Amino acid sequence: MALFTLAQVDAQEKNVIRIATDNTDLILQVAPNGRLYQAYLGDKLLNEKDINNFSPYVKGGSDGSVSTRGWEVYPGSGAEDYFEPAVAITHNDGNPSTILRYISSEQKAVAGGTETIIQLKDNQYPVEVTLHYIAYPKENVIKTWSEIKHAEKKPVTLWRYASTMLYFSGNEYYLTEFSSDWAKEAQMSTQPLLFGKKVIDTKLGSRAAMHTHPFFELGFEQPAQEAQGRAMLGTIGWTGNFQFTFEVDNVGNLRVIPAINPYASDYELKPNEVFTTPEFIFTFSNNGTGEASRNLHAWARNYQLKDGQGDRMTLLNNWENTYFKFNEELLAELMKEAKHLGVDMFLLDDGWFGNKHPRNSDNAGLGDWEVMRSKLPGGIPALVQSAKEAGVKFGIWIEPEMVNPKSELFEKHPDWAIQLPNRETYYYRNQLVLDLSNPKVQDFVYGVVDKILTENPEVAFFKWDCNSPITNVYSPYLKNKQVIVTLSNSDIKAKKDLEDKKVGAQNESSAISAMEKEEDLYNSFNGGSAITFEDNNQALMDLEAGRIDAVVADEILVRYYIRLKGEDKFNILDDNFGEEEYGVGIRKGDTEMVDAFNKAYKELQDDGTLAQISTKWFDADITIKE
């Protein structure tokens, strides 16, 4: 229990927050305006009393007319700072500004260090941000992330959501980044950071680190060196699209902003839902990048990696030896060679599957996860047995989220692949990415893994590859919600309030299926289940007449009904019974109709007509956003 004892710090009692390792201090300070600023980030202070000698303010410019500002720890958009914000929110009333003020903080012991938790809140909108910092003293590493939530009546739009923001004041800054290509991974390059912004980001979706990597080095007053000089190393715990922004302002201060890449990624945050940013991990050294990298290695082994202090199995992969040309006998011999070399596990790479379209090159078979009988007549069980006889474990290669157009899967389900409906398809490595927003695709991918492990429980390892970024980005799926609607004067404010209430829904509808998944709640309804109607209109009329307490139905239908009957009579709860996909059905093979529909839809979307129609009939723009 002592490990998790909380130390509460109230804003009125203390306005300085110290986040410290054995070698580094990060000092945050609450200013008289109630906002939180970075007062110091650097070497560990020699005198404890010095933490009270910092000011939260810095000069915003050389011109005396420029207001004095601070280095705000988590600045919002629309305030007096003219540079990149950490968070940007469009509120229900359309206001794009957010100003966060300090509420409280606490510190508690965690494995290896101390976690500092800081609560911030906007005093004009019900928006809260929680900042987390974990300082690991011995490793000299700090890990930080943020949580964003709100209690507005409707969802808000997030369009910036950084993990943190750090500030530096110096004469010179040098950035070392790592770019890549096939067989040319992690090419280091160093450049000075001058006025303006340097952005390192990726928009590839999957395989996000193919061209650039989610880590960097900063050198202060000189390029980062291996064994001398002050350096910072930083990395973000995010495998998707990321963005590092390095902004040098008009008076030479540097802002470092690690984040999920906001490109084409406005996020609809529902009331009381928590948006958690990725972790940003950083360390400093006065003895160059060698010491800094050892800090990160020690931290990762101790606290981040699963079994980081344990042994790792060594692995022999057949790929560079055989490529696509192998059979059971050859693989069995390689397993024996692996054992002779002292290797723990043998991995069978690409080329083991496909029968109608054999996977003998990278242009066919991907998606057909049946063992190729001509190569491997004994299937995976025979390979597992050969590995046991050789005294090594067995692993296998998969890439279930991808498909070759020359495959049985694509022949049966061409609509499962991500493709633009009205443009020539672009193929990366002769393959396409499957649309994982499609529930049937989700089931298929899960089924690939489940089938191999169910039939071969001794398979010890998957090499799950991802050889293509997401191309031809488009999906026909529209999320529809099963919403809860009540009369405006109802005491039902959340899903849990439906207990012992009369809840109506259309018979054999998606709403019934969605509610039945929450069995305990469903059985707690008045009568032990929902009251069913022939159609949703009858259910809504009974609600309006007061014969039932709530209706669960498609959001689109409910919004249309409320539009006709009067918005003041009804209330749609923030809670719902989940989402489902909507699509437009067209006669199979009628590509002319598909093209015509998509062309008309795109034109209506581009000129704003689609949004106007949606708002007119449903009181909201619920159309597909590309």
List keywords for this structure.
32% strand; 11-stranded antiparallel sheet; single chain; 5-stranded mixed sheet
Give the helices and strands, then pairings.
Layout (H helix, E strand, L loop, with lengths): L6 E4 L5 E5 L3 E7 L5 E8 L13 E3 L8 E3 L16 E4 L9 E11 L2 E10 L4 E10 L4 E10 L5 E6 L4 E4 L3 E7 L7 E6 L3 E6 L13 E6 L10 E6 L5 E7 L4 E8 L6 E3 L5 E2 L3 E6 L2 H17 L10 E3 L1 H4 L5 H14 L3 E4 L30 H12 L2 E6 L3 E2 L4 H5 L19 E2 L5 H17 L3 E6 L13 E10 L15 E4 L3 H7 L2 H5 L7 E3 L2 H9 L5 E5 H11 L4 E13 L8 H16 L2 H10 L8
Parallel strand pairs: 24-25, 25-26, 26-29, 31-32, 31-33
Antiparallel strand pairs: 1-8, 2-3, 3-4, 5-6, 7-12, 8-9, 9-10, 10-11, 11-22, 11-23, 12-21, 13-20, 14-15, 14-17, 16-19, 17-18, 18-23, 19-20, 27-28, 30-33, 30-34
What does the model show?
The two termini are 50 Å apart. Strands 1, 8, 9, 10, 11, 14, 15, 17, 18, 22 and 23 form an eleven-stranded antiparallel β-sheet that branches. A five-stranded mixed β-sheet has the order 32-31-33-30-34, sandwiched between helices. It is built from twelve helices and 34 strands. 20% of the residues lie in helices and 32% in strands. Mean pLDDT is 90; it is low at 1-13. The chain has 626 residues and is an alpha+beta fold. α3 runs parallel beside α4.
Could you write a compact summary of the structure shown?
This protein has 626 residues and is of the alpha+beta class.
